[in-house]
Amino acid sequence: MNIFQYFILLVFLLKIYYELMKLKTEHLPGIPVPVFFRRNRRARRIVVTTEHNCVKVSVPLWNSYSQARDFVVSIATKINSNIKELTAKGVDTQRDVNMRLARMPVEAKKLADRFVYLAKKYGFKYKKLTIRNQRTMWGSCSSSGNISINIALAELPGDLRDYVILHELVHTKHPNHSKRFWKELDKYTLISSKITDRKLRDYRITQWW
Ligand SMILES: [Zn+2]
After folding, report:
1. What gap in Å lies between CA 167 and CA 204, rounded to an integer?
2. Which of 41, 55, 59, 181 has the fewest C-beta atoms lying within 10 Å of its C-beta?
3. Ligand 1 center from residue 13 Cα (angstroms)
4. Coiled coil where (predicted)?
5. Separation of 104 CA from ligand 1 center, angstroms?
6. Domain final position from 74, 90, 106
7. How far is the centre of ligand 1, averaged over its atoms, from the C-alpha of 178 (Å)?
8. How far apart are the CA of 167 and the centre of ligand 1, in A?
9. How many domains does the chain have?
10. What is the extent of the structural domain holding 58?
11. How many CB atoms lie within 10 A of CB 200?
12. Cα angle value 109/101/96 (rounded, 5°)
């Protein structure tokens, strides 16, 4: 092998090593759900995100996994109370489901009205609005300008509901998540839309039917 081939081999091995190091799952003392650690080149500090069934940890390159682990264990009490809160939000009794179904026509109408109001206010053109109850998406916009919004938006705080509607409306102009898309969206929102987008991840989509 010549020096060039050695170099390629070295890069290749480093890449495999890096991939292996990227994700780790652990069960830590005092935390009832699995903890996923992920290397993140862009992270400036150790970032912990709690979900109802797992904890996700972004680890910057300059922190070791054991530092990240110690950090997670040190905030176990906070994580546990977050999990409790998220689980409480997520429990639906049959009564909840029935009540939602009864309210559905009214809530769907309210959502549609809000959508039409915001579209008109900011001069957006769209083809058709459909209100659905998708499992994973708050909203979507097709390339031909058909917009779907989730009935579950009815249960979000008003600023988040408006954020999702405006997000989909801006997609009629920018069918991607480019810099220009976020810049345009920021024109219509009071606080940075990227921050609101992150806030939205704390909310679960409820199934209405
Ligand atoms: Zn989008």
Report:
1. 18
2. 41
3. 36
4. none
5. 25
6. 90
7. 10
8. 6
9. 2
10. 3-90
11. 15
12. 125
- 208 lies in some domain: no
pLDDT digits (tens, 9 = 90+) for 91-146: 566 677 777 778 888 999 999 999 999 999 999 999 999 999 888 899 999 999 99
Separation of CA 26 and ligand 1 centre (Å): 32
CA of 1 relative to ligand 1 center, distance in Å: 49
SS3 169: helix
Per residue of the chain (209 residues), what is the pLDDT tens digit? 788 888 888 888 887 676 656 678 888 888 888 899 988 888 889 999 888 778 999 999 888 888 999 999 999 999 998 888 877 766 566 677 777 778 888 999 999 999 999 999 999 999 999 999 888 899 999 999 999 999 999 999 999 999 999 999 999 999 999 999 999 999 999 889 999 999 998 888 887 77
Å from CA of 162 to ligand 1 middle? 14
Separation of CA 140 and ligand 1 centre (Å):
7
Residues 69 and 110 in one domain: no
C-alpha 199 – ligand 1 centre gap (Å): 15
For residue 177, the CA-to-ligand 1 centroid distance in Å is 6
Contacts of residue 167, Cβ cutoff 8 Å, sequence gap at least 6: 139, 185, 193, 197
Query: Ligand 1 mean position to 128 CA, how many Å?
Result: 17
Question: Same structural domain for residues 13 and 73?
Answer: yes
CA dist 99 and 191 (Å) reads 33
Q: Does residue 205 fall inside a structural domain?
A: no
